[in-house]
Design a protein that fits this description.
mainly beta
């Protein structure tokens, strides 16, 4: 570390000396609003005089509630340098929304993504959660999430669902880069500010309790509790202060979803496995309006209805101790804790296509979408009933200390350090994402109709097979995935501020930050590929092993109320569900699914898979900076300029334990599995540095009007998955090939050159109008190169001499019959595990040296030469309607980018496109007078591209109405109520066209009511 820091500091000193020599003459500086980020205090924005309201009397009036929150937010925006917006608490312990992400979406240019029905991550000016840095009181916070639970976690995204809002004083969004603001967010830096006892001496606090009813809940509506409290007190002549805050929240909800999985896109002229039959060939007559030779289309691979129940428990707490032994020295010690435990139960009915005897109809090109897609089957095809359990806990801990000394000579020094961890892991003995399959065998045909918002799945069974006969359900394959993520950050910051009080040079800020970021991301799984039935004697024996009362008949259409298509008569009226733990314990006892799985190993006595992927990344970053703050006058009007530079140097050490595959198995009609040998560790290193200049200028040409201009360079570091070392082959290839990935620790961070312009008119303490323009030129985008190649000499048992002999003998490519032939005629290279009720053999067919090599599509990230320009406009108006108590807030953001996905291009060629770009808008009406507060808010976000270089996905436009009200009953006591998603707006996503639906979810309102007591 010593040599690393020494080299970095020498570069910084040489560079800043040159900058100072060039830039000092004639520069007049102003107070840096961001210089206090990370220091304890009432605000990260230096307090300045607020202009008088011409409509307000001169009597002393204490403004509280909504008006106080809006007034403080305006003060932060007006007095800050550069473009900064904020949301402030309305009173101690009372934030505008119970979820921080839901509050942030009210800010111009900020939109959110939801998980399990509530705000989770934020997008700022079109840049998604990976591009935004989140700090707590100016300290870089670790992030922790298990992602999809089915792979090693990799994201840097901060999950705001982990934090309750009751212990937050304000959230500040810095949209322009600053030398004094930590690097890492080209979208924004979001600073969460918590209260300090010495901010406001005396004893004060708040206690609140409420009940929450989520109308999305399947079955009985349950009221769940939320309790919060905060106490702040000072003593010893206000030189010692203690603050404690805590919150407990329980939420039970549902998030039912219909989903369709698609294969990769094809051109109409392609003739591969899974493509539509070419004109003049068998099956072509079954296609209506077949896509033309240059049209792009995608074939549905699978579809499901998921009945999802959620149980979330969130606990937050903070303890702050402050002492001011002298008038010039303040010491702060704080501990912050958050826990977010989420359990998700998913019961589904699903279908899978084999691309045999199909029928379909299509919309017109050039991006053709399916109208319907249907397939007929020989006896033995399965209808899937499955149960999944995701039960994980994310825990965050942060211990920090700060010393602030107002030294002689107008110098203020601050030393700040913290040790913070974020950990996510499962809460049971099964894993982080687990599933158990069941099936009724006997599907004769199945269809998906795409003409409505809801994809309508229907199926016909062979005579004598009832899909609602519980006695026919047999357990099939199962998987127990075990993920773990821990992020540990140790940070030391030394900051200085010098007040010059000169005519030109006003002040100087300087500082140094060292961040040691250690990340561990681990993943393993155990799996049984018994998709033809878990009992080797046949499906009927497996079905007989499960008592019929394990299964519960559940109505289906009502689970999608409000989604067009939910009343289609073709929709299955009911499905069977079963409790995951009950089935898991039965199968563990009778079939040893965890102690003797076909793939992987587990800890003794549990289903917790041993880790086969174990990634360790350590990032060490030093960041010295210097900033000159000046003030001057132009034609008698006040103006400010801030100029500074930050130097970042990061060293990356990445090591990874990855499994080495040694063989292949053909386990089902379209299911393959890999056999693994010993694991292997690999290590790689990387290093990069950046100079990040920033200049902010503002002038007040007329009273209460501010014009701003900013220029800066900002960076965002690559996600952890891209930085990991080692080659990883995905465990379940298909007959057409498999996939894999390899990381690259030498990736450079994204870098953006930013220009911001804004004009703001503050015509009252709670009223303003603003117009802003932003432009970002971004480089070092991370692309993915894909290489089609064999790997580890793995062979494809579904493509070789045995397969070709079976096809020639049978005259069909039906995989069920081909597998039966190979299992009967090649016993030396296969393993029979059972017989289906149709009389066809089930089992494993092993890859042989004479089989064709398995093709794998391996992806590796790299810094492409692609650049992108993002620009847009932000319009905002906040107006208090005189003394009526009413007010309105309106804002609209337009985001444009020059890298957009073209749905009509060849799908075999990956495209570079910007994710998350969309327009957004907010409209809020409020009332605050005579002890009554009320607010109705509408938030809208336009459709946006969500990702996919070869096969794009889009999330459709979404608008939500929220409302809240409170009435002060007596002094300090108020009763309040809230409604989230008042109109029950649902969500939907698609691929290249609207018909290519990927998910459709209904929406429901969430109600709460309670009491709050302030003292």
């Amino acid at each position: 570390m010593r040599s690393f820091a020494a080299r970095s500091l020498s570069r910084f000193i040489i560079g800043t000396s040159a900058l100072a020599l060039v830039g000092m003459p004639g520069i007049a500086m102003a107070q840096d609003a961001a210089a206090t980020v990370g220091n304890p205090g009432p605000s990260d924005i230096a307090p300045q005089a607020t202009p008088a309201d011409p409509n307000e009397t001169t009597d002393d009036i204490v403004v509280t509630g909504i008006r106080a929150s809006l007034r403080e937010a305006i003060d932060i925006k007006r007095n800050g340098q550069g473009v900064v917006d904020a949301i402030s608490s309305e009173d101690i312990g009372k934030f505008p929304d119970t979820n921080l992400a839901e509050s942030l979406q009210r800010i111009t240019g900020v939109s959110i993504d939801r998980s399990n029905g509530e705000g989770s991550t934020v997008t700022v000016r079109g840049f998604g959660p990976e591009y935004n840095l989140v700090t707590l009181n100016g300290r870089q916070m670790p992030t922790s999430t298990l992602g999809d639970g089915a792979s090693a976690p990799a994201t840097r995204s901060f999950d705001f669902a982990n934090l309750a809002s009751e212990g937050v004083a304000a959230v500040e969004v810095y949209k322009t880069g600053r030398a004094a603001v930590p690097s890492g967010g080209i979208g924004s830096t979001i600073n969460i500010r918590t209260p300090r006892p010495l901010d406001k001496p005396g004893t004060r606090g708040s206690i609140a309790a409420k009940g929450v009813l989520d109308s999305s809940r399947n079955g009985k509506d349950q009221i769940t509790p939320e309790v919060s409290g905060i106490l702040s007190t000072t003593f010893a002549d206000d030189r010692i202060g203690v603050l404690f805050s805590g919150a407990y929240q329980r939420r039970k909800a549902s998030n039912n979803s219909a989903s369709v999985g698609f294969r990769d896109g094809f051109l109409g002229a392609e003739n591969n496995w899974g493509t539509l039959a070419q004109p003049g060939t068998p099956g072509a007559a079954n296609i209506t309006n077949r896509p033309g030779p240059t049209d792009v289309y995608e074939i549905p691979q699978s579809a499901a209805y998921d009945v999802i129940d959620i149980d979330r428990e969130r606990i937050n707490g903070q303890l702050v101790l402050q002492a001011k032994p002298t008038d010039t020295l303040t010491a702060t010690l704080d501990f912050t804790y958050s826990s977010n435990k989420v359990e998700v139960r998913d019961s589904s009915v699903g279908i899978w296509f084999n691309f045999g005897d199909t029928r379909s109809a299509w919309t017109n090109g050039p991006a053709a979408g399916p109208v319907f897609y249907s397939e007929n089957f020989a006896p033995g095809k399965d209808l899937s009933y499955s149960s999944s359990l995701t039960a994980n806990k994310s825990e965050n801990k942060s211990l920090g200390g700060n010393l602030t000394w107002e030294a002689p000579g107008n110098v203020t020094m601050s030393l700040d350090a913290h040790h913070s961890t974020a950990t996510s892991k499962p809460t049971n003995d099964y894993g982080s994402s687990t599933s158990i399959g069941g099936a009724i065998f006997g599907v004769q045909s199945q269809t998906i109709n795409f003409e409505k918002d809801l994809p309508v799945i229907s199926y016909q069974m062979y005579p004598g097979i009832d899909p609602l006969n519980a006695a026919l359900i047999t357990p099939t394959g199962n998987a127990f995935r075990n993920a773990y993520f821990k992020d540990e950050i140790n940070q030391l910051q030394l900051k200085g501020h010098y007040d010059h009080d000169g005519d030109f040079l006003d002040s100087i800020d300087w500082g140094f930050s060292y961040v040691d970021n250690k990340v561990r991301s681990a993943y393993g799984f155990i799996q049984n590929e018994t998709w033809g039935g878990i009992d080797p004697r046949g499906a009927s024996f497996g079905a007989a092993a499960v008592p019929d009362d394990f299964f519960h008949l559940t109505s289906l259409p009502d689970k999608f109320n409000g989604v067009a298509g939910s009343n289609d008569p073709a929709l299955p009226p009911s499905i069977y569900t079963f409790k995951f733990e009950q089935m898991a314990e039965l199968l563990r006892t009778q079939y040893n699914i965890c102690s003797k799985p076909q793939t992987g190993t587990a800890a003794p006595g549990t289903c917790l898979a041993d880790y086969t992927n174990d990634r360790r990344i350590r990032e060490q970053t030093i960041s010295p900076y210097i900033q000159f703050n000046g003030k001057f006058e132009v034609l008698g009007r006040s103006a400010h300029i801030i100029g500074g530079v930050r130097y970042d140097e990061t060293q990356v050490n990445s090591s990874a334990l990855v499994p080495i595959p040694t063989g292949t198995r053909w386990t089902g009609a379209n299911e393959f599995a890999l056999t693994y040998g010993a694991n292997s560790f690999t290590s790689l290193k990387g290093r990069y540095h950046n100079w990040l200049p920033a200049v902010d200028f503002d002038i007040e040409p007329v009273r209460n009007v501010k014009l701003r201009a900013s220029y800066s360079h900002t960076i965002t570091r690559a996600d952890y998955g891209s930085l990991q070392g080692g080659l990883n082959i995905d465990s379940n290839p298909r007959i057409g090939g498999g996939t894999g990935s390899q990381g690259n620790p030498n990736l450079l961070p994204f870098k953006s050159k930013n220009i911001d312009l804004s004009a703001e008119w503050y015509y009252g303490p709670e009223s303003y109008i603003s117009v802003g323009y932003f432009k970002k030129d971004v480089e070092n985008f991370i692309g993915t190169t894909q290489l089609n190649t064999p790997a580890f000499n793995l062979r494809n048992p579904g493509s070789g001499p045995r397969y070709r002999q079976a096809v020639a003998a049978l005259g069909t490519t039906d995989n069920l019959r081909v597998r039966d032939y190979i299992l009967r005629n090649f016993p030396a290279s296969s393993q029979v595990t059972g017989t289906s009720d149709a009389g066809l053999l089930n089992g494993n067919i092993f890859g042989l040296p004479e089989d064709d090599l398995f093709n794998f599509q391996l992806s590796q990230p790299f810094n492409s030469d692609q650049t992108a320009n993002i620009n847009g406009w932000e319009f905002a108006i906040q107006h208090r309607l005189w003394e009526t108590g009413f007010g309105v807030i309106l804002n609209y953001t337009i985001v444009n980018g020059d890298a957009k996905y073209d749905n009509a291009l060849d799908p075999n060629l990956g495209q570079f496109a910007l994710t998350g770009l969309s327009d957004s808008a907010n409209a809020v009406a409020y009332y605050d007078k005579n002890g009554i507060q009320a607010r109705v808010a509408y938030n809208w976000r336009g459709e946006f591209y969500a990702g996919g270089a070869f096969d794009p996905t889009y999330v459709e436009a979404y608008g939500q109405v929220d409302a809240s009200a409170s009435v002060q009953m007596t002094k300090g006591l108020a009763v309040f109520g809230e409604v989230i998603n008042l109109t029950g707006q649902g969500r939907r996503g698609h691929r290249r066209s609207d018909n290519f639906v990927t998910f459709a979810q209904p929406g429901y309102a969430r109600y709460s009511a309670g009491l709050r007591f302030n003292f």
